[in-house]
Amino acid sequence: KQLSLYSLPVVICFHLKRFEQTANTQSNKIDTFIEFPPSLDISPYTSSNVIFKSTQKNTTNKTIPTEIHKEAFKYELFSVVVHHGKMDTGHYTSFVKQEHDWFKCDDATITKATLSQVLQSKGYLLFYVK
User: Fold this and answer.
1) How far apart are CA 124 and CA 80, in angstroms?
2) What is the pLDDT of residues 54-106, one digit of tens each?
3) Residue 40's Cα: distance from chain center in Å?
4) What is the pTM of this model?
5) Distance CA 66, CA 54 (A)
6) d(CA 100, CA 107)
7) In whole angstroms, what is the distance from residue 84 CA to residue 121 CA?
């Protein structure tokens, strides 16, 4: 099975599976660390229609597909949502990037964070932007 993107969104959200149901209908939290990158190149996951989406006229005035600039496939991590606690009790925090700085948001408390702290978190939702 393969999934290919047909058009490129401004924001991509990855929802990591952090909860599972067992055979006896009990729910458990999956607390495994999953490594994620600070930037993504999604060109290997796009259909050829995206790569040649734009068109231009050649010298004989025929419309021909043109390759999209490689930077159009680059995405940067800008937010991570983390779940703390167990399945039935817990708390959500987030890391948010503003310009070049990272911040941790925990209810009404906002503190400065580092990229290292973000990448070492057990992300639940990952947000990337062009």
Assistant:
1) 7
2) 445 556 665 544 456 677 788 999 999 999 888 778 899 999 999 999 999 99
3) 8
4) 0.78
5) 6
6) 22
7) 10
